Amino acid sequence: MQILTSLILAAFAAYAGAWYFGAFEGNFALLLFMATVVTGLYWLAERFYFLPQRKKAAVALEVQATQRRSELAKMGIDKVDGDIAQARSRIIMQPWWLDWTAGLFPVIAAVFLLRSFLFEPFKIPSGSMIPTLRVGDLILVNKFIYGIRLPVLNTKITEGSPPQRGDVMVFRYPPQPSLDYIKRVVGLPGDEVAYLNKRLTINGKPVVTTALPEFFDDDAMRYYKQYQEVLGTHTHRLLNDDDRPAFVPGVEDFPNRQNCRYSIEGVVCKVPPGQYFMMGDNRDNSLDSRYWGFVPDNNIVGKAFFVWMNFGDLKRIGSFN
User: pLDDT above 70 covers what percent of the chain?
Assistant: First the structure.
């Protein structure tokens, strides 16, 4: 078992290492699921086989030691070398290969259940959601509000509430589902979304915006125009860059592309059933549905709702719209 356990642990380490160094695109949900299954099997084996066997061996040792002491006592020998309690503890103690598998199962299982069905942490890697979310924000994502999904398979098993216009949502990037993206829900199924001359219109109605003082981006070291926008029940801020044109360059050939009309002024899209149109709050610096298309319901991960840490700015901690 020691050799088998060493090979299993080496396989996990090799997978994680190759993923870290970019040899392939890993799947953390699958890795965590496999770790839960493997450590769970070891935990069951420890509880119902290995531990009872060690306890049986400890009892046998105590019986043997008692018999030996009795025989020596008949011979007039009262003092016997050896600490039975210490020897028993050594027999009962978990070996290293069980300590690193069965011993870790409760922690791994708790992380797996929490991450799969309740809340999952993410780190914001880019500035596409500035000013709502900044680079380095560590956020929490509600995994059950849109319906509970089976881990790895991402199959929905409960309905939950449908995404609402204005929600900040994490989803699997349609062109590469192994990547997680975060954007704001702008268009719901059946909506006609128009973003022309940097003004957002939904179903023919302009979205209410109010000019705010300019926003200074510390990373870009420049100011951007800032507005307050109302999407559904969400009031949030967005940025516009006057140096960027209104038209959408480098559009990909995505599913249902025929639902979108591109022009020098921007884009107009009819959102297909069961799909969503996503945009970043940093409107001129966001690779979103304007470029790669709609997000299917099957790609949804959850709703982002809280910044739990930003090591560069502790004032960032808190909820957001």
Answer: 98
- Please report which helix (H) or strand (E) contains residue 122, including its range: strand 119-123
Q: Taking the model in full, what pTM does it have? A: 0.85
Domains of the chain from N-terminus onward: 2-113 (no CATH), 118-319 (2.10.109.10)
Planar angle of CA 162, 276, 235, nearest 5 degrees: 70
The residues assigned a catalytic role are 128, 183
Q: What angle in degrees, to the nearest 10, is found between the helix axes of 2-20 and 28-45?
A: 170
Q: What is the pLDDT of residue 80?
A: 59
Closest to 169 in 3D by CA, of 182, 154, 156, 187: 182
Q: Which two tokens stand for residue 22?
A: 């970019």
Report long-range pairs for 198-205 (Cβ below 8 Å, ≥24 apart).
198/240, 198/246, 198/266, 198/283, 198/284, 200/229, 200/279, 202/165
